[in-house]
Amino acid sequence: MAKLRKFVAYRRLERPYTRVSKFRKLSFVRTRPNVHIVRFDMGSPSKEFGYQLDLVSKKDIQVRHNALESARQTANRVLESNLGKSYYFKIRSYPHHILRENPLAAGAGADRMSTGMKCSFGKAIGTAARVREGQSLFSVYVNKQNLDVAKLALKRASHKMPGATSIKVAEL
Hints:
This protein is of the alpha+beta class. Helices cover 18% and strands 27% of the residues.
């Protein structure tokens, strides 16, 4: 399987150019890759909680769906092992933006493999969430006695994010 390109190539927010037409051959984006986020809501949504903690982005950035899923698993593991089901964890951003790449071959025989910059729109390789400054990535709802565990879970999730983040606590 091919190695993922470093996310430095996709981190900045640019104007998304993803032409989709009702006629298939006029669409530049041919397919939509699967989003690998398993669940967007975890824990007990029906319970009443006293505090809401948010992992907030400090700048405009794109977050790949792999990073969101990795952060979700890390935070949910901490919350579930320490709190059981007395929390509610929600992913706030959805990866809509389609990432693409135009692979260029180098070395001997590359002239038969690649077309260079002709038709260089690129193939879809994944999806990303476009996050603005101050936008919440994850939310955790807990009671007062579980605040420290929720902060630890969001701190561990922030290590998986490509940009700088902060944790905001609000009383409900």
